[in-house]
Amino acid sequence: xxxxxxxxQAKNSNRFPECWISWTWQQKKMLKTPLIGVEGxxxxxxxxxxxxxxxxxxxxxxxxxxxGVRYRGDVEFHVDGKDWFRHGHDADLRYRNVLLHLxxxxxxxxxxxxxxxxxxxxxxxxxxxxSHWRDAMQRLETESADAHVAAVKISSxxxxxxxxxxxxxKVHRLAVWSEQLGLPDTTFITLAxxxxxxxxxxxxxxxxxxxxxxxxFRRFSPAQRSPFLFxxxxxxxxxxxxxxxxxxxxxxxxxxxxxxxxGDYPILSLEDWNFSRLRPSNRPAVRLAGLAQIxxxxxxxxxxxxxxxxxxxxxxxxKTLREWMACLQRPLGEQxxxxxxxxxxxxxxxxxxxxxxxxxxxxxxxxxxxxxxxRNNNPGLCAYLESLYEQFPRTENPQ
Length: 399
Known about the structure:
By secondary structure, this protein is of the alpha/beta class. It has helices spanning 2-12, 19-26, 83-86, 130-151, 156-181, 183-195, 197-210, 213-219, 227-237, 250-261, 284-297, 303-312, 317-328, 334-344, 354-375, 379-390, and strands spanning 35-36, 42-47, 50-51, 59-66, 69-78, 98-103, 118-121. The longest helix has 26 residues, at 156-181. The two termini are 36 Å apart.
């Protein structure tokens, strides 16, 4: 396993955000002319087309000359060409007009798609060295972040007032949810929504509203339970396995067969999820793996009760934050890590990264514990939680 892990890490060293391919497409000077497809086709970009900020192909209405013939259609970007199937594009009619599938490396372009449209690897079609290209993409990320920061002009007092209003709005919303679901399930729904960001918060909310931890525990006996089983069931319910272009391990196939025979059916489909321009760590299947590991590790007591126990000690922020972070950042089991790598091509080591764990605590853990403090008439705990909120450290780096 250690040898396989080293291979995983080596492969993942080339990972980068899919938006880097999009940025390169918009800067034609960084591309060779013509582009050479994986089967030798010559592709000239006459018009780059319009970026699609919603679901569907990344670029729409591009005018391309392929082997001397001009076509107008769409372009799709992927770091790993197999994502065409993982994201369900093969059965999605919105992708029927794709002319060019631009992937990072020729080797990742699925050969079965060559008869459907032209595929090309960006790596072999850069007009500059790869190191120069990576440096340029990093600069673009920094410049974009700096521009956003420069556009924000607000006093510290105004910002504090907005933050206070936001905190109490979250407390009110979670109080309403917990009346229907209870605090433990609401805690998980809140984590899932935040891990989905704005793009996938809605399907995560819908999935966990229908498949909360209490339902998972009713569905599987203690002897059956494992992080891999929880992940399999959630991904199946989310519709993430509904494609024909991906091969699954024998263990996963066995789980899926059991779900079918047991009368479990997907609640969502691949089209409910947004995969465009997602960083690899934000993919739904990766996030569900982290949640599956957390749920398995906190069956008794629940995650909510453990977080509450830590809060009741009213320790200094630094120590409380460290203990809460340990609850959210769980090392993934070997089987789950292996399955995630096979399905997503990602070597996931722990459930949540540092930055996102801090965001989950600030925007989820503190408000949900505040709900408990209000309901149980514990003003001391409420005051302690509000003080943590006010002095909470930066959750994101300056970029």
